[in-house]
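Supplementary notes (optional reading)

For those who missed the lab, this is the record we used. Protein: malate synthase. Length: 557 residues.
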Amino acid sequence: MTTSKLAGYYDAPEGVDVRGRYDEEFAKILTRDALEFVARLQRQFRRQIRHAMESRREAQRRYDAGGLPGFDPATRFIRESDWVCAPVPPPIANRMVEITGPVERKMVINALNSGAKVFMADFEDALSPNWENLMKGQVNLRDAVNGTISFEDRERKRVYKLNETTAKLFVRPRGWHLKEGHILIDGEPAVGCLVDFGLFFFHNCAAYRANQGQGFGPFFYLPKMEHSREARIWNNVFNRAEESASIPAGSIRATVLIETLPAAFQMNEILYELRSHSAGLNCGRWDYIFSYVKTLRAHPDRLLPDRVSVGMWQSMMRSYSHLLIFTCHRRGVHALGGMAAQIPIRGDPAAHAKAIEAVRSDKLREVRAGHDGTWAAHPGLIGEIGTVFEEGLAGRENLIGVVRREDAAGICEEDLLERPRGRRTIEGLRLNTRVGIQYMAAWLTGTGSVPLYNLMEDAATAEISRVQNWQWIRYKALLDAEGVELALMPELFARVVEEEMGRIEREVGMEKFRRGMFKEACSIFVRQCMAAELDDFLTLDAYNQIVIHHSSAGSSL
Ligand SMILES: CC(=O)SCCNC(=O)CCNC(=O)[C@H](O)C(C)(C)COP(=O)(O)OP(=O)(O)OC[C@H]1O[C@@H](n2cnc3c(N)ncnc32)[C@H](O)[C@@H]1OP(=O)(O)O
Ligand SMILES: O=CC(=O)O
Ligand SMILES: [Mg+2]
């Protein structure tokens, strides 16, 4: 963490101290009333959040002692009884294609104009949560909701404005585990997701409901939950926000990402907690793979094969998505598919066609399985994905009430835990290392989603690289090196890191390598891969490097 001086200061209420850089535009977001709203949420829910995080650690201790996640006998009545969530709001009945992306100004406009039904504006996997990104993101979303957002690219002499018809906005706040180090509430760092949610809700609730939500909204995506008690906190936050804005209960809707292994056993319970606020579930496949390794880190019989081999075709991944579709449709809500990592490739038509075909077949699998919609990483994919889903939905808005997937009712604990099969190779180790370091370097310098080797990489995909290296090092995995088996010892990893750093330097060029933060990224990544105890998240340690405190009037630094 570093500190520096600034000119203006934010008008913060009692007990709130804003230590991020002062900016007149940010001050219109960080008003006294908005900060008071965030502080009230934090004060009301901090005990429950602390308890939920301690419960995560307790569950992990059980898995570390040899236990496995499973369905909770205590909530069998929720899984077995008949209940449904609140009816789907008409403006979001059709969610065939959803584009996702960070809350960067030009990308927000491009995403809203992309032709997708929904735009998920991301404060999470796709965003490096530095102060500038977060606050500019809030400014951008406010302008988007008001319909006034524009952006001028002077170099390219291009002005960006919203089209007549735009995607419906969903906002993804950070996960429960992340703090906002630039805002202190009663001396403690604010809870990151309450800052993201609170500021967005406070400034946009009324305009969103009038301009986009047809009386509903705002809409959210909720990431990385591990248990229904965390969904209960969100439900209470929504109740509190609705009361304070004097809007009807059930106006806010949220789609929960099922992207942790423990949450796969809690789909019904999560929907139940949020039943008056639910907008379904989504298969967050990348974090899910990461979570499989993290949750089962003490189980040497659960080593994953190379990252490229852990796709939706693996039995465990298929079981998880089928159970999600069955659960959502039984409860009357959308079952969203996930993100294919391929993106359009310029200047190589054959590679481009291959990438598009990979996305097309992933989407075909999803719609045939019964998903109501899916995610797109890039505007260039919307047309192809839209065609697949339009054909699959055959004129319907969604498949709720159409595809029941009763066959998935019998998916059991073993199905969800089955280890993915495939080879572990030295090439896999090299790729993880190259990708992990380059992603971390981008993140440290303010970019949270990047194209690497023609694939979309973000915090979730980078996590797989990190924990997979950790797991292989921890258990001295045997790796295939062109037909020879090598045990992954620390010396071998050190040699791979050195060689891959050399390759990164050659690929990005000496100048960019020198100016970038590749060395810092390498040292964070290597420390985490070699740690005796697996760090919970890649971004927790690295976050300290992007917190910059400025002194404010009345604060003592
Ligand atoms: C695991 C998960 O959580 S998935 C969800 C989180 N991850 C994401 O949301 C990733 C979203 N995608 C992206 O960030 C980007 O597509 C990347 C980083 C993968 C690739 O970005 P780039 O290399 O800049 O793409 P490219 O140069 O082809 O972009 C072409 C145009 O499309 C725009 N664009 C690309 N992706 C997006 C997007 N997701 N949303 C809006 N606009 C986009 C670019 O801004 C650019 O616009 P311009 O022509 O007006 O200048
Ligand atoms: O957030 C999505 C994921 O795949 O992770
Ligand atoms: Mg994720």
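If you only remember one thing from this example: The chain has two domains: 33-339+349-417, 426-549.
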